Amino acid sequence: MARTHCPNCDKVIEIKSPRVGAALVCPECDVDLEVISVSPFEVDFPLDDDWDDDDTDDWN
Ligand SMILES: [Zn+2]
Predict the structure, then answer these.
(1) What is the pTM (predicted TM-score) of this model?
(2) What is the distance in A from the centroid of ligand 1 to the CA of 24?
(3) Which domain holds residue 19?
(4) What CATH number has the domain bearing residue 7?
């Protein structure tokens, strides 16, 4: 069982088989999260939209 803490409310979050990029919702505060690392297990706020926009500008 992988275990980490919610970056929003600091509640313990446990997942049996986390995968990088997998979306999840904190059971305590309902914030949207994303698995950013599995070893160690870490989650963070999903930032795809933000950096994707910047990245697209750079590429174009
Ligand atoms: Zn939370």
Answers:
(1) 0.74
(2) 11
(3) 2-59
(4) 2.20.28.160
Query: What is the three-state SS of the chain?
Result: CEEEECCCCCCEEEECCCCCCCEEECCCCCCEEEEEEECCEEEECCCHHHHHHHHHHHHC
pLDDT tens by residue, the chain, 60 residues: 999 999 999 999 999 999 999 999 999 999 999 999 999 999 999 976 655 555 556 666
Q: Residue 23 Cα, ligand 1 centroid: separation in angstroms? A: 14
Ligand 1 center to 44 CA (angstroms): 10
Q: What is the pLDDT of residue 47?
A: 75
